[in-house]
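Researcher: Let's do a round of design. I'm pasting the structure tokens now; please hold your answer until I've finished.
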């Protein structure tokens, strides 16, 4: 990136040198000063665009890459056609105008992804784990809210590199859906809290939900599997994927602790 910046600066300051390198005549050198300077203004945003595109693709944002390619290609064609029709005398300005506009569109699309999932840093969209590995969320008592949370928190759980990260995902899914499906007496604007703390040697999920006493710990032996039905299936799965569950009930709040040990 620094090399591209230096090259752009040199071309902008000494365009006639570049023209002479290609054997241009004096008259052609005079005519090429403006196009070369406009071209160098497009080099830096073009380099940034290519670098970000490669980062997005390598990090698995294939859908975003496809949309960026579609939007940027269509946008470039539209800009070229408009300038060719209405300002043909400024045709060389297409280079920097399209380059900077396409870069702006790309970082704007990346910002939308970042807003939907703050664990992707902007504008590189790299997965990040905070220096203090603790995150907190407030969820509505809806299946849509749980679904959005599970999608949002998965990169954090994955980045923590747990021995069995899938067990965390499954435990969260079963517990949270159990809460929203069984606690039907809440108002539309009410939420419950989820705190995730990653400290050696234990990864802890704390869920706090208002309501009547509801103990999620469901202990059973293998010879009692036949008695598991739809009413207790979620809690049975939760107890199987998370071996260390604690529950406390204080002041009308259920506090559920899911502990996953690294060792």
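Researcher: That's everything. Go ahead.
Model: Designed sequence:
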């Amino acid at each position: 990136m620094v090399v591209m910046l230096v090259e752009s600066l040199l071309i902008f300051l000494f365009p006639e040198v570049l023209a002479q390198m290609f054997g241009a005549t004096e008259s052609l050198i005079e005519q090429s000063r403006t196009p070369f300077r406009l071209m160098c203004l497009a080099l830096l945003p073009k380099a940034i665009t290519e670098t970000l595109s490669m980062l997005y693709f390598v990090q698995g944002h294939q859908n975003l890459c496809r949309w960026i390619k579609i939007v940027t290609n269509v946008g470039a064609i539209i800009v070229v056609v408009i300038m060719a029709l209405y300002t043909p005398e400024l045709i060389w300005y297409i280079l920097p105008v399209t380059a900077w506009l396409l870069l702006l569109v790309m970082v704007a699309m990346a910002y939308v992804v970042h807003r939907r999932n703050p664990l992707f840093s902007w504008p590189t969209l790299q997965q990040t784990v905070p220096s203090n590995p603790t995150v907190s969320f407030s969820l509505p008592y809806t299946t849509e809210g749980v679904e959005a949370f599970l999608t949002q928190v998965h990169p954090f759980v994955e980045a923590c590199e747990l021995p069995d990260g899938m067990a965390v995902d499954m435990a969260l899914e079963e517990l949270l859906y159990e809460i929203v499906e069984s606690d039907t007496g809440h108002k539309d604007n009410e939420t419950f809290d989820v705190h995730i703390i990653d400290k050696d040697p234990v990864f802890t999920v704390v869920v706090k939900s208002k309501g009547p006493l509801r103990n999620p710990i469901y202990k059973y032996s293998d010879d009692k599997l036949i008695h598991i039905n739809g009413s207790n299936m979620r809690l049975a799965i939760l107890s199987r994927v998370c071996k260390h569950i604690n529950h406390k009930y204080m002041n009308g709040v259920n506090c559920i602790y899911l502990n996953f040990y690294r060792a």
